[in-house]
Amino acid sequence: MQTVTLNNGVEMPIIGFGVYQVPDAEECENAVYEALMAGYRLIDTAAGYMNEEAVGRAIKRSGIPREQLFITTKLWVQDAGYEKTQLAFAKSMHKLQLDYLDLYLIHQPFGDYYGAWRAMEDLYREGRIKAIGVSNFLPDRLIDLILHNDVVPAVNQIETHPFYQQAESAAFMKKHGVYHQSWAPFAEGLNNLFGNEVLVSIAAKHNKSVAQIVLRWLVQRDVVVIPKSVRKERIAENFDIFDFKIDAEDIQQITSLDTGKSLFLSYHDPEVASKMGNWKIDL
Protein backbone atom coordinates (compact mmCIF):
# COMPACT_ATOMS: atom_id res chain seq x y z
CA MET A 1 0.00 0.00 0.00
CA GLN A 2 1.44 3.35 -1.05
CA THR A 3 1.29 5.89 1.76
CA VAL A 4 2.01 9.56 2.36
CA THR A 5 3.52 11.03 5.52
CA LEU A 6 1.53 13.76 7.25
CA ASN A 7 3.13 16.73 9.00
CA ASN A 8 3.17 14.91 12.35
CA GLY A 9 4.79 11.75 10.97
CA VAL A 10 1.59 9.71 10.69
CA GLU A 11 1.39 7.57 7.54
CA MET A 12 -1.83 7.72 5.51
CA PRO A 13 -2.76 5.55 2.50
CA ILE A 14 -2.75 7.57 -0.72
CA ILE A 15 -5.98 5.89 -1.85
CA GLY A 16 -9.02 5.26 0.27
CA PHE A 17 -12.71 4.53 0.02
CA GLY A 18 -15.35 7.25 0.44
CA VAL A 19 -18.98 6.75 1.45
CA TYR A 20 -20.58 10.11 0.66
CA GLN A 21 -24.16 9.69 -0.57
CA VAL A 22 -24.42 6.07 0.55
CA PRO A 23 -27.02 6.51 3.29
CA ASP A 24 -28.58 3.04 2.99
CA ALA A 25 -27.13 1.10 5.92
CA GLU A 26 -26.93 -2.33 4.28
CA GLU A 27 -25.57 -0.99 1.00
CA CYS A 28 -22.95 1.10 2.81
CA GLU A 29 -21.84 -1.75 5.06
CA ASN A 30 -21.47 -4.10 2.11
CA ALA A 31 -19.61 -1.53 0.01
CA VAL A 32 -17.11 -0.79 2.80
CA TYR A 33 -16.65 -4.49 3.44
CA GLU A 34 -15.95 -5.13 -0.25
CA ALA A 35 -13.50 -2.22 -0.27
CA LEU A 36 -11.63 -3.64 2.69
CA MET A 37 -11.54 -7.07 1.06
CA ALA A 38 -10.19 -5.46 -2.14
CA GLY A 39 -7.27 -3.98 -0.21
CA TYR A 40 -8.38 -0.49 0.81
CA ARG A 41 -7.25 0.47 4.30
CA LEU A 42 -8.36 4.12 4.39
CA ILE A 43 -12.11 4.59 4.92
CA ASP A 44 -13.55 8.11 4.82
CA THR A 45 -16.94 8.89 6.36
CA ALA A 46 -18.58 11.81 8.21
CA ALA A 47 -21.24 12.43 10.80
CA GLY A 48 -23.15 14.30 8.10
CA TYR A 49 -23.18 11.27 5.81
CA MET A 50 -25.41 9.42 8.27
CA ASN A 51 -23.58 6.13 7.80
CA GLU A 52 -20.94 5.91 10.54
CA GLU A 53 -22.71 2.94 12.13
CA ALA A 54 -22.66 1.01 8.85
CA VAL A 55 -18.96 1.78 8.43
CA GLY A 56 -18.31 0.56 11.97
CA ARG A 57 -20.11 -2.71 11.31
CA ALA A 58 -18.14 -3.27 8.09
CA ILE A 59 -14.85 -2.68 9.90
CA LYS A 60 -15.78 -5.16 12.60
CA ARG A 61 -17.05 -7.68 10.04
CA SER A 62 -13.80 -7.49 8.06
CA GLY A 63 -11.71 -8.82 10.93
CA ILE A 64 -8.78 -6.66 9.81
CA PRO A 65 -6.57 -5.64 12.76
CA ARG A 66 -7.32 -2.08 13.83
CA GLU A 67 -3.71 -0.96 13.50
CA GLN A 68 -3.81 -1.76 9.77
CA LEU A 69 -6.72 0.62 9.15
CA PHE A 70 -6.89 4.39 8.71
CA ILE A 71 -10.35 5.72 9.58
CA THR A 72 -11.50 9.29 8.94
CA THR A 73 -14.70 10.99 10.02
CA LYS A 74 -15.79 14.62 10.12
CA LEU A 75 -17.46 17.12 12.42
CA TRP A 76 -20.59 18.80 11.05
CA VAL A 77 -21.22 22.56 11.37
CA GLN A 78 -23.97 22.31 13.98
CA ASP A 79 -21.54 20.57 16.34
CA ALA A 80 -18.81 23.22 16.06
CA GLY A 81 -17.69 24.70 19.37
CA TYR A 82 -15.51 23.26 22.12
CA GLU A 83 -18.00 21.30 24.23
CA LYS A 84 -20.21 20.28 21.30
CA THR A 85 -17.19 18.95 19.41
CA GLN A 86 -16.21 16.74 22.33
CA LEU A 87 -19.73 15.32 22.47
CA ALA A 88 -19.89 14.86 18.70
CA PHE A 89 -16.55 13.07 18.69
CA ALA A 90 -17.72 10.66 21.39
CA LYS A 91 -20.91 10.01 19.43
CA SER A 92 -19.00 9.26 16.24
CA MET A 93 -16.63 6.93 18.07
CA HIS A 94 -19.57 5.04 19.54
CA LYS A 95 -21.15 4.63 16.10
CA LEU A 96 -17.86 3.54 14.53
CA GLN A 97 -17.12 1.19 17.46
CA LEU A 98 -13.58 2.53 17.70
CA ASP A 99 -11.25 3.37 20.58
CA TYR A 100 -9.30 5.96 18.60
CA LEU A 101 -9.58 7.79 15.29
CA ASP A 102 -6.87 8.18 12.68
CA LEU A 103 -8.08 11.49 11.23
CA TYR A 104 -10.80 13.91 12.36
CA LEU A 105 -11.76 16.77 10.05
CA ILE A 106 -13.80 19.94 10.46
CA HIS A 107 -16.25 19.36 7.63
CA GLN A 108 -17.06 22.98 6.76
CA PRO A 109 -15.32 26.32 7.48
CA PHE A 110 -18.37 27.82 9.20
CA GLY A 111 -19.68 28.29 12.72
CA ASP A 112 -17.41 28.13 15.75
CA TYR A 113 -14.68 26.13 14.07
CA TYR A 114 -12.09 27.77 16.32
CA GLY A 115 -13.75 26.24 19.36
CA ALA A 116 -13.97 22.96 17.47
CA TRP A 117 -10.27 23.10 16.62
CA ARG A 118 -9.27 23.68 20.24
CA ALA A 119 -11.31 20.62 21.26
CA MET A 120 -9.71 18.58 18.48
CA GLU A 121 -6.24 19.74 19.57
CA ASP A 122 -7.00 18.45 23.09
CA LEU A 123 -8.29 15.12 21.76
CA TYR A 124 -5.16 14.87 19.64
CA ARG A 125 -2.90 15.56 22.62
CA GLU A 126 -4.76 12.90 24.60
CA GLY A 127 -3.99 10.37 21.88
CA ARG A 128 -7.62 9.78 20.95
CA ILE A 129 -6.99 11.10 17.42
CA LYS A 130 -3.77 10.47 15.49
CA ALA A 131 -4.17 13.49 13.21
CA ILE A 132 -6.57 16.42 12.84
CA GLY A 133 -7.44 18.45 9.78
CA VAL A 134 -10.08 20.34 7.86
CA SER A 135 -12.24 20.11 4.76
CA ASN A 136 -13.32 22.80 2.30
CA PHE A 137 -11.01 25.46 3.76
CA LEU A 138 -9.89 28.10 1.25
CA PRO A 139 -6.31 29.38 1.64
CA ASP A 140 -7.34 32.51 3.55
CA ARG A 141 -9.22 30.59 6.23
CA LEU A 142 -6.60 27.89 6.31
CA ILE A 143 -3.72 30.29 6.98
CA ASP A 144 -5.79 32.09 9.60
CA LEU A 145 -6.33 28.78 11.42
CA ILE A 146 -2.64 27.90 11.12
CA LEU A 147 -1.40 31.23 12.48
CA HIS A 148 -3.67 31.35 15.52
CA ASN A 149 -3.51 27.78 16.80
CA ASP A 150 -0.89 25.33 18.04
CA VAL A 151 -1.49 22.39 15.70
CA VAL A 152 -1.21 22.84 11.94
CA PRO A 153 -3.95 20.89 10.11
CA ALA A 154 -2.54 17.64 8.73
CA VAL A 155 -5.01 17.46 5.84
CA ASN A 156 -7.36 19.71 3.86
CA GLN A 157 -9.95 17.75 1.89
CA ILE A 158 -11.19 19.82 -1.04
CA GLU A 159 -13.01 19.38 -4.33
CA THR A 160 -10.36 18.29 -6.84
CA HIS A 161 -10.88 16.69 -10.27
CA PRO A 162 -9.85 17.30 -13.90
CA PHE A 163 -12.29 20.21 -14.27
CA TYR A 164 -11.24 21.91 -11.00
CA GLN A 165 -7.61 21.07 -10.41
CA GLN A 166 -6.83 23.39 -7.48
CA ALA A 167 -3.20 23.99 -8.51
CA GLU A 168 -2.85 27.23 -6.50
CA SER A 169 -4.45 25.75 -3.40
CA ALA A 170 -2.24 22.66 -3.74
CA ALA A 171 0.90 24.81 -3.85
CA PHE A 172 -0.27 26.83 -0.85
CA MET A 173 -1.03 23.71 1.19
CA LYS A 174 2.31 22.12 0.32
CA LYS A 175 4.11 25.28 1.43
CA HIS A 176 2.43 25.07 4.84
CA GLY A 177 2.71 21.31 5.33
CA VAL A 178 -0.99 20.53 4.87
CA TYR A 179 -1.71 17.42 2.82
CA HIS A 180 -4.05 17.76 -0.16
CA GLN A 181 -6.93 15.26 -0.27
CA SER A 182 -9.49 15.17 -3.06
CA TRP A 183 -13.22 14.81 -2.69
CA ALA A 184 -15.31 14.16 -5.82
CA PRO A 185 -12.30 12.96 -7.87
CA PHE A 186 -14.75 11.98 -10.64
CA ALA A 187 -16.69 15.27 -10.36
CA GLU A 188 -19.69 13.04 -9.60
CA GLY A 189 -19.85 12.43 -13.36
CA LEU A 190 -20.60 16.07 -14.20
CA ASN A 191 -19.35 17.63 -17.45
CA ASN A 192 -19.61 14.14 -18.92
CA LEU A 193 -16.32 13.21 -17.26
CA PHE A 194 -16.54 9.53 -18.15
CA GLY A 195 -17.22 10.38 -21.80
CA ASN A 196 -14.68 13.20 -22.10
CA GLU A 197 -12.70 12.74 -25.32
CA VAL A 198 -9.34 13.59 -23.75
CA LEU A 199 -9.79 11.22 -20.83
CA VAL A 200 -11.25 8.45 -23.01
CA SER A 201 -8.25 8.73 -25.36
CA ILE A 202 -5.72 8.53 -22.52
CA ALA A 203 -7.62 5.58 -21.02
CA ALA A 204 -7.49 3.72 -24.34
CA LYS A 205 -3.76 4.44 -24.63
CA HIS A 206 -3.08 2.76 -21.29
CA ASN A 207 -5.81 0.10 -21.56
CA LYS A 208 -7.40 1.48 -18.40
CA SER A 209 -10.74 3.05 -17.50
CA VAL A 210 -11.32 6.78 -17.33
CA ALA A 211 -11.76 6.43 -13.57
CA GLN A 212 -8.36 4.78 -13.26
CA ILE A 213 -6.75 7.52 -15.34
CA VAL A 214 -8.23 10.25 -13.14
CA LEU A 215 -7.14 8.53 -9.94
CA ARG A 216 -3.66 7.85 -11.29
CA TRP A 217 -3.33 11.50 -12.36
CA LEU A 218 -4.24 12.66 -8.85
CA VAL A 219 -1.94 10.18 -7.13
CA GLN A 220 0.94 11.28 -9.35
CA ARG A 221 0.20 14.83 -8.18
CA ASP A 222 0.66 13.49 -4.61
CA VAL A 223 -3.03 14.02 -3.87
CA VAL A 224 -4.81 11.52 -1.59
CA VAL A 225 -7.96 10.15 -3.24
CA ILE A 226 -11.13 8.60 -1.80
CA PRO A 227 -13.23 7.31 -4.73
CA LYS A 228 -16.71 5.94 -4.02
CA SER A 229 -18.67 3.13 -5.63
CA VAL A 230 -21.22 0.58 -4.45
CA ARG A 231 -20.38 -1.89 -7.23
CA LYS A 232 -17.88 -4.61 -6.31
CA GLU A 233 -16.15 -4.57 -9.70
CA ARG A 234 -15.77 -0.78 -9.70
CA ILE A 235 -14.46 -0.78 -6.13
CA ALA A 236 -11.72 -3.21 -7.18
CA GLU A 237 -11.03 -1.34 -10.44
CA ASN A 238 -10.56 1.99 -8.68
CA PHE A 239 -7.96 0.42 -6.41
CA ASP A 240 -5.99 -1.03 -9.34
CA ILE A 241 -3.97 2.04 -10.31
CA PHE A 242 -0.41 1.19 -9.31
CA ASP A 243 0.73 -0.89 -12.29
CA PHE A 244 1.06 2.03 -14.74
CA LYS A 245 1.93 5.72 -14.96
CA ILE A 246 0.61 8.51 -17.13
CA ASP A 247 3.27 10.48 -18.99
CA ALA A 248 3.99 14.18 -19.45
CA GLU A 249 1.83 14.37 -22.59
CA ASP A 250 -1.12 12.82 -20.75
CA ILE A 251 -0.68 15.26 -17.88
CA GLN A 252 -0.54 18.22 -20.24
CA GLN A 253 -3.79 17.13 -21.89
CA ILE A 254 -5.55 16.69 -18.54
CA THR A 255 -4.25 20.06 -17.37
CA SER A 256 -6.00 21.66 -20.36
CA LEU A 257 -9.38 20.52 -18.95
CA ASP A 258 -9.18 22.78 -15.90
CA THR A 259 -11.98 25.36 -15.72
CA GLY A 260 -10.69 26.90 -12.50
CA LYS A 261 -14.20 26.78 -11.03
CA SER A 262 -16.14 24.50 -8.71
CA LEU A 263 -18.81 22.34 -10.30
CA PHE A 264 -20.79 22.32 -7.07
CA LEU A 265 -20.65 25.50 -4.98
CA SER A 266 -18.47 28.51 -4.32
CA TYR A 267 -17.19 29.05 -0.80
CA HIS A 268 -16.69 32.71 -1.73
CA ASP A 269 -20.47 33.13 -2.07
CA PRO A 270 -22.19 34.64 1.04
CA GLU A 271 -25.37 32.72 0.22
CA VAL A 272 -23.46 29.45 0.29
CA ALA A 273 -21.88 30.42 3.62
CA SER A 274 -25.30 31.26 5.04
CA LYS A 275 -26.84 28.02 3.85
CA MET A 276 -23.98 25.79 4.97
CA GLY A 277 -23.57 27.56 8.27
CA ASN A 278 -27.20 26.95 9.15
CA TRP A 279 -27.59 23.46 7.67
CA LYS A 280 -28.95 21.30 10.45
CA ILE A 281 -28.85 17.50 10.16
CA ASP A 282 -30.59 15.02 12.43
CA LEU A 283 -27.41 13.43 13.75
From TrEMBL:
The keyword ATP-binding does not apply. Keywords: NADP, Oxidoreductase. One of its GO terms (molecular function) is oxidoreductase activity, acting on the CH-OH group of donors, NAD or NADP as acceptor. The record marks 74 as: Lowers pKa of active site Tyr. The active site is at residue 49. InterPro entries: AKR, Aldo/ket_reductase_CS, NAD(P)_OxRdtase_dom_sf, NADP_OxRdtase_dom. It holds the Pfam family Aldo_ket_red. The lineage of its organism: Bacteria, Bacillati, Bacillota, Bacilli, Bacillales. Belongs to the aldo/keto reductase family. It comes from Paenibacillus bovis. Residues 16-258 form the NADP-dependent oxidoreductase domain. Substrate binds at residue 107. This is 2,5-diketo-D-gluconic acid reductase. The keyword Oxidoreductase applies. It comes from the Bacteria.
